[in-house]
Structures
1.
Amino acid sequence: YYISEAITYIISTRDDISETELQTIADQVSKEGGELIMTLAERLMEKGMEKGMEKGMEKGELRKAREMAKKLLKMGVSPEQIAEASELPLQEILKLKNEIEN
C-alpha cells in the first residue's frame, strides 16, 4: 500500500522523472524494508497536510478580504481604495460592487 501511495505521489508531483528512475526507486524501497516505506509515507502525508493547510488558510484569507470589501463598498468607499487596501484586484472589487447593486 505505502509503495503504491509513494509512487502515486511522485508521479503526480514530478513530470521530469522517467519510468526507469521510478523503477529504481521502487526497487530500493522494497529492498530496504517496511520501515523505510513507512517513513516515506509519513513524510509524504505530512507534506500533503502542510499543503492542504496552506491552501485552506489562503482560501480563508481571500474570503475575509472579499467580505471586508463588500462592507466597505456598502459604506461608500471607492473600489480603487478598497483594491489598494485589500490587495484584491480592482476587477474583483468591481464584480463585488455589481453583485451588491443587483
2.
Amino acid sequence: MAGVVGIDPGPFTLRELLWMADSKLADSWGRSAQITAMIYNANRGENSSAATPDDFNPYRRDRSRKPGTIRTKCKYVAELFPNRKK
C-alpha cells in the first residue's frame, strides 16, 4: 500500500495506508475518467448522448453493486471505434 502512495509506511497503520491508497487510486481514476470522457465526447456522433466522467470511473458509479466490480458501458467503448467490424 505504501508503494501506491509513495511514502514510508513506518509511522502509519495498515488502515491508514489502505485509506491513502484508496484515495490515491480514486484520484487517478478521476483524472483518467475525465480525459476519457473528453475524448469520447469530442469523437461521438451527432445522435449519441454525451458521456460524463462518472460513466467511465468505477469509483463514482452506483454504490449498490459489490465493491471491486467494474462494469463498463460497452456502447461508449464501441462508439470510440466506429469503423471496426463486429
3.
Amino acid sequence: MELYGITSSRNEFYSLNAKGNRTNRVIMAAGFESFAYTFYPGSDLVKSDGRMSYVYDANGNVIEKGLLVSVSADSVSIVRSGEHYVRY
C-alpha cells in the first residue's frame, strides 16, 4: 500500500507493509530523498527511519531517539546530544 501527502512545495510518499507499518518514505521537494525503515527483529518497533533511530523500553515505549550513526541486527547507535536527540 502507498500513501501520499502533497503540498505546493513538497510531496511525501510512504510505502506500507501488510501490517500497515511504514517501510519506505520518499520526499520530493527541491530534490529527491528516499528513506528505508528498519525494524527490530521479531517486532513492529521501528529501529530506524533512515535518518533517526529509536530506542525502546521493555514495554515498547520510545525512550530515546536521535540521529542515526549505525544499525546492527538488534541495536542502534545514535548521537546522544544536539538538537535532534530526545530522551523521554
4.
Amino acid sequence: MLVVCDYLNGVVEMPDERSYEICFRWPQPRCHADVIDTIVDPDEVRIDSQVVYGDGHVLIGKIYLFCRWFDEINDGSHVVAAICEGGLHEYRYINSFHTKELTTGERRWSR
C-alpha cells in the first residue's frame, strides 16, 4: 500500500506484512485507518535518529515520527507512526504505537 504524505512531499510505502501486523497488535476497529490518518494528517512531526525494535534490532538513520491524538483510543492517546527515509522522496513505514505522552524525538513541526 502507498500512502501520500504532504509533509514529506512523497509517498510512504506500507508493506502488506506491516498492515497485517497493525491489525493483529491493535484490536480496535479503526486501527489501520488511524495509522494512515496519522501519516496523512498529523498533529505533530518529530525526528529521531534511532529506533529499537522489540526484538533488539536497532535501525539508525533519519526516522520521522508522525503523531496524532485520538480521544477514542484508550481514553485518549497519541498514535505514533515511524517512517524511515530511504532516499530522495522514498519513505517506508516501519512501526507504530500508542502513547499518552510524546517524549521521543525532536519536534520539527506541529499544528
